[in-house]
Amino acid sequence: MTPEDISFDDELSRGIVTYNERVGHWWHRQAVNHAHRYAYRNIAGFIRDSVPGTPGNIIDFACGGGNLLARIFELFPESNITGLDGSALLLQKARRRLIRCDREYERRVSLVETPLPNFELPAASADLVVFAFPNIVPIHGHDDTAQNEGLLGAADAGVGRSLAEQIGRDDGCEDEVDEIYSTIIRDRLVSKNMRHLLKPSGLCLRVEYANVRRDDLPPSETLLTGYEEGSMDVEAGGRRAAQWFRVAASAYFRSRVMEDVYHQSEDESDREGGYFITVLRCC
């Protein structure tokens, strides 16, 4: 099955079930190609250089087939690791990958099938949360915006609404503001969930697809990135969102992993770029 065989809009609108079927198989093939193997090796080295000492507990949030998790397992032989993902198919791939590393991997690794975000997971349990190449979809294929607003709070959601309206004006898509808003606050909620999992002294390391360096993002994209990841420390629309993280470091790498985005968007501008890695420290 090639990307041309998949209607990503249709598949992703089905929700998490597609990660046990067509999109899950597509992602598994993507994650083992040359560009991704090199990227995961680079990301793992970045983690090793950025994290002081040995984290007691590490969470790979949306771990997929365990491509990065297996490298973390080998890099931190004294750490306990939890891989969270909503796809039984991809978690099975992760188990097989870990067995190749160490048949006794379960002494240090737990793989948990769960929809994400999930605020019933143990709070303040992790020293490090890793979130690489995210593509989290609503469980049933559509956002429960009212529920997400309630979990964020009125002031916090209000900032997201202001940013969605600004993006709508800038991009000439005012008729899509509600859809933009739903996506923004869902992504924001994911970050709140990761902060929920981290100890007060913890670190979150995010790997995001990007066309440019973080420092070169347009002002509106800089605000949006900060809001979604929980590091925004300025007002928007007369409101201030809760700040959960501070940016400790960031680096940009050109890579053909950006074609993951092109496969879904079919936008030629998404063929060029790579990813940036951001290290976030809990506030």
Runs in which pLDDT lies below 50 for 5 or more consecutive residues are none
Q: Which band does the percent of strand residues land in?
A: 15-25%
Indicate the CATH architecture. Answer: 3-Layer(aba) Sandwich
Number of distinct beta strands: 7
Helix content: 40-55%
Helix count equals 10
What is the CATH topology?
Rossmann fold
Order of helices and strands: HHHEHEHEEHHHEHEHE
Described by strand count, sense and barrel closure, the largest sheet is: 7 strands, mixed
With strands numbered from the N-terminus, the spatial order across the biggest sheet is: 3-2-1-4-5-7-6
Q: Which radius of gyration do the C-alpha atoms yield?
A: 18 Å
CATH homologous superfamily assignment: Vaccinia Virus protein VP39
Number of domains: 1
Distance between the termini: 44 Å
- The CATH C-level name is Alpha Beta
Comma- or semicolon-separated keywords:
Rossmann fold; globular; 283 residues; 42% helix; alpha/beta; 7 strands
Give a written overview of the molecule.
- A seven-stranded mixed beta sheet has the order 3-2-1-4-5-7-6.
- The protein is globular.
- Helix 6 (145-152) crosses helix 8 (177-197).
- The longest helix has 21 residues, at 177-197.
- The protein has a single domain, classed as Vaccinia Virus protein VP39 (Rossmann fold, 3-Layer(aba) Sandwich).
- Strand 1, helix 4 (67-75) and strand 2 form a beta-alpha-beta unit.
- The chain starts with 7 loop residues before the first helix and ends with a strand.
- It contains ten helices and seven strands.
- The protein has 283 residues and is an alpha/beta fold.
